[in-house]
Amino acid sequence: MAHVDVELAQVRARDAIPADEAEAAARAELLRRAIRYHDERYYMEDNPEVSDAEYDALVRELMAIEARFPALVTPDSPTQRVGGQPAAAFAKVRHDTPMLSLANAYSPEEMYEFDRRVRQVLGDDVEYVCELKIDGLAVSLRYEGGVLVRGATRGDGETGEDITANLRTVRNVPLRLRDPVTVEVRGEAYMPKHAFVRLNQQREQAGEPLFANPRNAAAGSLRQLDPEVARSRGLAVFIYMVVDPPAGIATHAEALDWAAAQGLPTNPERRTFRRMEDVMAHIQAWAERRHDLPYATDGMVVKVNRLDDQARLGATAKSPRWAVAYKYAAEQAETVLREVVWSVGRTGAVTPTAVFDPVFLAGTTVTRASLHNEDYIREKDIRLGDTIVVQKAGDIIPEVVRVVPDLRTGAEVPVAVPKACPQCAAPLVRLEGEAAWRCVNPACPAQIRERLIHFASRDAMNIEGLGEQWVTQLLARGLVRDPADLYTLTREQLLTLDRMGEKLAANLLGAIARSKENSLERLLFALGIRHVGEKAAKTIAQAFGDMDALMAAGVEQLTAIPEVGPKMAESIVTYFQSAAAQQLIARLKAAGVNMRYLGGEGDNARPQPLAGKTVVLTGTLSRFDRKRASELIASLGGKVTGSVSAKTDVVIAGEKAGSKLEKARTLLATGQRPDLVIWDEEAFVALLREHLPEALREA
Question: Hey, what domains does the chain have and what are their CATH numbers?
Answer without folding.
Answer: 6-81 (1.10.287.610), 104-327 (3.30.470.30), 332-429 (2.40.50.140), 445-590 (1.10.150.20), 614-698 (3.40.50.10190)
